[in-house]
Amino acid sequence: MIKWTTSTMLRCLSCKEEYGSDNAGTCKDCYEEASETEEELKREIEDLKAKIAFLRFWSPLEHHNFLQLGSPSFTDVVLVASDEHPANPVSFPAHKAVLTCRSPVFKAMLETDMEERLSGIIKISDISNDTLRCFVDYLYTAEACLDEQMARDLLVLAEKYEVKYLKAHCEKFLVSKLNWDNLVTNFGLAQQHNAKILLDASLSMITDNMSKFTKTPEYAHLVEKDPRLVVEIFEAYLSKAVNTAAKKD
Amino acid sequence: MIKWTTSTMLRCLSCKEEYGSDNAGTCKDCYEEASETEEELKREIEDLKAKIAFLRFWSPLEHHNFLQLGSPSFTDVVLVASDEHPANPVSFPAHKAVLTCRSPVFKAMLETDMEERLSGIIKISDISNDTLRCFVDYLYTAEACLDEQMARDLLVLAEKYEVKYLKAHCEKFLVSKLNWDNLVTNFGLAQQHNAKILLDASLSMITDNMSKFTKTPEYAHLVEKDPRLVVEIFEAYLSKAVNTAAKKD
């Protein structure tokens, strides 16, 4: 049997408080090793951030100011949101080299004799000027100032142009904002655009609260509008219930 | 007084060994917090690496294969090592947009009506084809397969074209390889090209072994060839000696 008295308490090197046997963490060697590892990881993060700063093109604002000021920017293609009101056309100049490097779809478009290569104009349907600006900026900088609607719009665009990294970025953002109000919308979006990260997270949130979910107006609406999706939800719920039961046995 | 017997030893959660009061590291809470921090840092590193993969252009080999195969690569400028033997001219195609983004010197060259802008040819003197290939690759990928000579050549080029990130990369590589044989060469290079990281490291290695250093043939050669540099070394040595003495008082 171990008997502890106050005189046998140890002092934690990190928080400086005393602790006893029940609260034993690490020995000194392991503590020092862990501190070193943490320092190394932080240095690696600084190095990676510096590399990103080097590889990134102009920041969004700089980029657009730069182009507006008429400085030579060596762009050789423009992107246009084709459904925007014709009274308000905005062309977003870009570089073929950047577009082909970021998206296999742009690559196919610009490396073969498709209309876009010959005209130097890429028309993008079903999006606003704001979304297109944000999309182009992301291709250059790997950064976007997202809200939920922008994340959904960019997810659709990223799926269409196969920009996997942006798609994952939007999915992770939407997962971080997932709540009872946007759950069905995000689940439907994820389903429609093969967004696996968002799909798993939203489906898990639904099946964890199945009986609450089936009492919502969104559920009633979904049964009406898209019963197949409801079937998929129930299948996932069943599968989870079976797994849970199997674990208990 | 604390008395320890084997029965009062604690078990380290990390290495699973027992430890006593002298070897106390952290309490359990701090251990768990540190583990979580480490996991978070590792996740951040993964995220940053994915961002780098997205922002990077073609890898060196792909890049050159790509260009050799005659696929459209939308390049609009070539770089040439101007001193290479004329029987062996190699042009390295590149994009003005990438060069201006990576180097203020290329930017000034290509955005004003200098010869290079008009001709679309940038001649680079005093380097080999191999060094130029490595330099261009680095501007696209932020990666280089370095040996000591290549690191020195690229450091000079990075200084000339103000590619700070590459310069720091070469300096860090040379610091990691610093030894008694290459010390004077690297110190001289650092001195000549304002390479502060390499300068500090090599000067520190010299002044730590001053009496050994003054007995080497390199020292004798340096006194002959560049006595000002020797004066700088002695000044640094004196300054260190004064500081050490002040700390002791």
From TrEMBL, chains A, B:
Pathway: Protein modification; protein ubiquitination. InterPro entries: BTB/POZ_dom, SKP1/BTB/POZ_sf. It holds the Pfam family BTB. Residues 75-148 form the BTB domain. It comes from the Eukaryota. PANTHER family: SPECKLE-TYPE POZ PROTEIN. This is BTB domain-containing protein. It comes from Nepenthes gracilis.
